[in-house]
């Protein structure tokens, strides 16, 4: 069910199946549709190609009712070479060697098979190969955009780690604190891919020292199926920043440890995704990805100049990507009708103010409607929602707070701290400055008139009473 819908979204299924004009992903692959977002620089000319996997030819050439097609979207993320594609291979029970699978840069989309046909997986497979220095910033920005897009699209985020490293802990923390993942509707699983562990006792030692000790996770169990065919699934549960996390264990294939853990982890993950019917949504993945990317492009690119040396302000011009009129490419809107995409390149320059964290996450997301966003925590009681926003170095007059029924909007300006130090040379600059705008979505309506705010030691505490409703009987 999911595959035809994704192909419609990609422009492959219209009134009939037209995959011949699309490039096929070469070699063994699990992917059905690949948005080859290999570089932001490609938008200057050809843009990003839409490629197809081998299953596209098997799709039925009729248009299903899109109102009846829904599913959950699962993003598989993790540091490079942690086994993300191995996990897809295992979940689909397909005998392809992970080492020989094609890893295509960009967003790779896979529709579920058989009983999992309401599940769509997104992989952000990329490259960790060396690159010439003047291309490094573009790669960082492209990777950040891919991660932001994948997290925005997903219902479930599955983080894949091997033997836990400090870099993995940092990665997990950045995912969990990401505004998209912090939403109550998002679910987070961590897959511990212990690909070097063979013995059951060795797996237990790793679980004790990493899963139970570091994450403070507890063993849990749920039953899949009914009657004599029911299966018990063991997993671990932890809580981090108010988010419930399920931990699933995998060991090296065809070993005693794998016999204990792998199959029940597969059953546990797939069952959890399948039964989450309340989290299903429309599967317009390609169009939604483009819509999200369009919200980021004005902040990614700096002001450039036209050929006559007049100023071209990309933020005012509202750069947008669209599907090309006749070619299987995603291009800038002013190149939609071009026959030769290599001609007349659109001049683009990455913004010099892009900010990143250690894992290339929050920089792009922090620039929604502004240069950056402050950190915040959100708490809830039976009576109210409380937001605490970190705004150190601000006077009360520097930030403006607007309360609406379903959101808190804070906007302000921080002066560059360097201005207070005459003749200074910057060696390190991690404190953001310039204009910011933060919008905090709330899960229920609040009583704006009764909302109160107080400032203390650089923290804004905003207490929002929940809106109460009364019932009136009319006779």
From TrEMBL:
Coiled coil: none annotated. It holds the Pfam family MMR_HSR1. Residues 367-475 form the SHSP domain. InterPro entries: A-crystallin/Hsp20_dom, GTP-bd, HSP20-like_chaperone, P-loop_NTPase. One of its GO terms (molecular function) is GTP binding. Belongs to the small heat shock protein (HSP20) family. This is SHSP domain-containing protein.
């Amino acid at each position: 069910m999911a595959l035809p819908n994704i192909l419609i979204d990609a422009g492959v299924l219209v009134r009939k199946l037209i995959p011949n004009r699309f490039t096929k992903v070469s070699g063994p692959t699990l992917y059905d549709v690949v948005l080859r977002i290999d570089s932001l620089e490609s938008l200057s000319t050809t843009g990003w190609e839409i490629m197809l996997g081998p299953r596209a030819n098997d799709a039925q050439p009729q248009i299903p009712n899109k109102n009846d097609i829904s599913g959950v979207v699962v993003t598989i993320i993790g540091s490079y070479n942690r086994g993300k594609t191995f996990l897809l291979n295992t979940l689909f029970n397909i005998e392809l060697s992970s080492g020989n699978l094609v890893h295509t840069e960009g967003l790779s989309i896979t529709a579920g098979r058989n009983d999992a046909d309401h599940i769509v997986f997104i992989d952000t497979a990329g490259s960790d190969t060396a690159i010439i220095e003047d291309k490094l910033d573009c790669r960082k920005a492209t990777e950040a955009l891919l991660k932001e897009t994948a997290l925005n699209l997903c219902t479930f985020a599955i983080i894949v780690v091997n033997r836990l490293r400090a870099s993995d802990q940092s990665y997990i923390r950045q995912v969990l604190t990401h505004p998209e993942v912090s939403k109550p509707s998002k679910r987070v699983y961590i897959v511990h891919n212990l690909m070097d562990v063979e013995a059951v006792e060795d797996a237990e030692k790793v679980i004790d020292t990493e899963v139970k000790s570091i994450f403070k996770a507890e063993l849990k169990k749920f039953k899949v199926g009914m009657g004599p065919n029911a299966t018990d699934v063991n997993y671990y549960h932890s809580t981090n920043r108010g988010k419930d996390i399920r931990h699933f264990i995998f060991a090296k294939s065809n070993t005693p440890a794998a016999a204990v853990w792998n199959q029940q982890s597969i059953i546990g993950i797939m069952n959890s995704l399948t039964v989450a019917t309340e989290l299903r949504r429309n599967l317009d993945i390609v169009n939604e990805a483009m819509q999200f990317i369009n919200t980021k492009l004005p902040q990614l690119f700096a002001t450039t100049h036209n050929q006559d040396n007049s100023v071209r302000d990309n933020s005012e011009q509202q750069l947008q990507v669209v599907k090309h009129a006749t070619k299987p490419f995603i291009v800038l809107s002013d190149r939609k009708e071009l026959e030769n995409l290599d001609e007349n390149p659109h001049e683009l320059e990455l913004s010099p103010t892009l900010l990143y964290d250690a894992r290339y996450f929050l920089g792009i997301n922090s620039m929604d409607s502004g240069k950056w966003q402050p950190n915040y925590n959100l708490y809830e009681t039976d009576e109210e929602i409380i937001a605490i926003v970190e705004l150190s170095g601000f006077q009360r007059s520097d930030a403006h707070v607007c309360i609406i029924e379903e959101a808190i909007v804070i906007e302000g300006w921080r002066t560059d701290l360097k201005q207070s130090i005459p003749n200074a040379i910057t060696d390190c600059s991690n404190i953001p400055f310039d204009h910011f705008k933060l919008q905090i979505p709330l899960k229920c309506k609040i009583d704006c008139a009764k909302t109160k705010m107080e400032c203390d030691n650089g923290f804004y505490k905003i207490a929002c009473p929940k809106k109460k409703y009364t019932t009136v009987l009319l006779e």
